[in-house]
Each structure stands twice: as structure tokens, then as C-alpha cells.
Amino acid sequence: MKEKFEYICHRLEGKDYRIPYGQAQGERKESLQLNESAAILWEAFAKDKSLEEIITEYSHVTKIKESAMEFQAFLYEQGILEKPVTFETFTQGFSIADLNLLYLGIKEHMHPSFQDFALAKAYDAFHKPIDMRIQVLYGKPKVYHQGRVILRSDEVIITEAKDEFIMIFLKDSALIEGRITKDGHLAVFHTVYPIKESLCHVLFHGIRFAFLLLAQKKAKFALHSASILYKEKLWLFSAQSGGGKSTHSGLWHNILKAPLINGDVNCLGIEAGNVYCYGQPWCGTSDIYSPHNYPVGGIVFLSQGPKEQVSPLSHSQKVLMLNNRLISPAWTKEQAKSNLTFAEKVAKKVPILYYSCTMEPSAVTYLQTIIDNL
């Protein structure tokens, strides 16, 4: 149970008061006078104790159950204590990158791409082990959570609290905030109300933040890259923005009829000593993705040049280039170390090439010869 007790304990003329500060003061919360029983209950709830724990601990107090329930309801009403999430809306289970997610919200706000990953039966959504619950709530949060700012961008501010990461969406977003528990088991999103038409697409992008954190916890990492299937293995092409990864993968598709698997994001993991790419729906603006898993043949870092040339890379160069193109969270030191450790493992298990090339058909045939001779 999360609390937001931004109140100073203060005595005036022999009476206990709780005086708001911080966000509570900014929201113009009232100062509260507490009697002895209410002060005890306040401290208990502030220490994150559940209603059941409080009733048990103070079972010797007359009518403790009624008093505790009434005081809890008061804290909910005042926006001091956050009411637990309830799951009374549309639900749908998904299996993305072999991780089970449960969506709880309005059906129309669920991005169409998720349907390719839907669990076969509604029954499965509740009886398969769920790795993450995604709850969509409509309207601004009654309780604003606070944290230390760890990342700022043009679209989002991410803060770190004790048990969760908080995303504050900027600009004209259809989302107000999102919260993800650090273990990845729960993501809660608050939307603007009345609901904006853009919510479906903005929520899809917001859920990606949550999924990438969960995937990282499960030793799966996202590489900014396009991918094609060649000789039953996946080859990934990664480059800086505008570096030609989409053009190059398109040439493989047009010339060699190699299936396009994902146009922008590939989720990687290691099983039984082999590197695999797992199906997931996020693909930038390419609309190219697959729900299937494939073994990885190799990774090619592209740059544009006047001719085709593959340059050798040291192990350190492979690791650093791979780490630089990962888009899994690196919000904290621990996450950054996790990404780097994974990059080191992958660099030892699959070929990683640096390829300077034109955007002509010869770029495909040249690289095809290299790959065939690995």
C-alpha cells in the first residue's frame, strides 16, 4: 500500500495537528487535527501497514476494526492514502517475448498490434502466471507520487521512488503519468479526461517503457535495429538515425526475398547458450513486426560509405557499439551495468560486423558473401 503523507506532525495548545507541505501544500490540502486514536492510526498507515495488520496489532482496542476502516476511508477521501487499484474493466492477456502481460482498461484503447500476441483463451489470461499487470485509469491521479528525477527528455520526466519508477508525460500527451514497480510486476497509467483520440497510440508507447523494464528484469534486452530472416536465422542491422538500416534491410527483402521481421526494435535474450530474438509489437513507424521467436545469426553495424567494406572489430569495440544501441532502461547505475553485462555476453556468442556500404544492390551481395563464409 503506497502512502503520501507529506504532513508535518505538530502540537498546538496540547493538540496534535498534521500540517501539509510539498505536493500536499501545492494542492492546498487542509491541516488536520487528530485525536489520540486517529494519531495512532495515522502513524500505522504511514508506516505502510495494511488494514489487516493494523486490526491485528491493535486487537485489544475497542472497535478497532470499525475505527481503522473509517479512518482509512477518510484518508482515501482526502487523497492522502492511495486507494488500491481495482480490476473491473476489460481484460486481455498477451504473451510478448515469452512474457505474460495482462491489460486492464478500455478495449478501444488497446493498440491493434497487441492482438497478434493475445493469449488464445480468456481463461489463459488469469490462469497463466502473469509477469506484468497493466492498469489504465481515467482521470488525473488522486495522489501524486514523488521521486528523485533521474531522466529528462522532451517527452517525459522519469523519477525514482523507493519501490517504483514514475513517468511524467510532457507536451500535449494523452497520458498524465505512469508508474512501474521496480520488479516490473505492475504498471499503472493515468490518462487525460475527457479522453483524447491519440490515447491508443500514446498508451502503446507508454507501455513500451514498462515492457522494456520488465524484459530487462527477465534478462531480455532491446536493440535499436531492423531485422531480416536469412537461412533460418535473424540478422540485425543497426545504425544511427538516418544511417540506412531500413533501406538496407529493404534491399535484402527486395533482392533476396528475405522476410522482414522488425523495422526498428529487436528484443534479444540468451537461452541454452544461444542468442534469440523474441517477437514483440514495437517497431517504430515501420509497421513491421513479428510475434515469432528466431535464433540470431549475427549483428551488423552500418555506416554509409563510397564502397562496400567490412572492418574488423575488437571485442571491446563490439561490446561498446552494442551497448550504445541498446534501448533497454539505463536509468540507474544497476540497469546500465545490466545492459553492459548482456552486451559482453552477446559479443562472445554471435558475429558482430562493422559494415561501411552504399545503398545500392551491391551492398547486399557483398555482405551476403561475407555471411555465407562465416
Q: Treating each run of at least 4 consecutive H or I residues as one helix, how many helices?
A: 10
pLDDT < 50 runs, ≥5 residues: none
Global Rg: 25 Å
Number of domains: 3
Shape, principal axes of CA atoms: elongated
Describe the main β-sheet briefly. 9 strands, mixed
Helix content: 25-40%
Beta percentage is: 25-35%
Compressed to H and E, one letter per element, the order equals EEHEHHHEEHEEEEEEHEEEHEEEEEHHEH
Number of strands: 20
Mean pLDDT, nearest integer? 90
Q: What is the CATH T-level topology of the largest domain?
A: Rossmann fold
Structural class: alpha+beta
Using the coordinates above, name the CATH class of the largest domain: Alpha Beta
Distance between the termini: 55 Å
Describe what you observe in this structure:
By secondary structure, the chain is an alpha+beta fold. It has 3 domains: 7-78; 90-217, no CATH class; 220-372, Rossmann fold (3-Layer(aba) Sandwich), CATH 3.40.50. It is built from 10 helices and 20 strands. The protein has helices spanning 22-26, 36-46, 51-57, 64-78, 122-127, 199-217, 245-256, 315-325, 333-349, 362-372; strands at residues 7-12, 15-20, 32-34, 90-96, 99-105, 132-138, 148-152, 156-160, 164-169, 175-181, 186-191, 220-224, 226-230, 233-238, 260-262, 265-271, 274-278, 294-304, 309-311, 352-357. Strands 12, 13, 14, 15, 16, 17, 18, 19 and 20 form a 9-stranded mixed beta sheet that branches. An 8-stranded mixed beta sheet has the order 4-5-6-11-10-9-8-7. A 3-stranded antiparallel beta sheet has the order 1-2-3. Strand 8 (156-160) and strand 9 (164-169) form a beta hairpin. Helix 8 (315-325) crosses helix 9 (333-349). The relative contact order is 0.09. The model has no long low-confidence stretch (mean pLDDT 90).
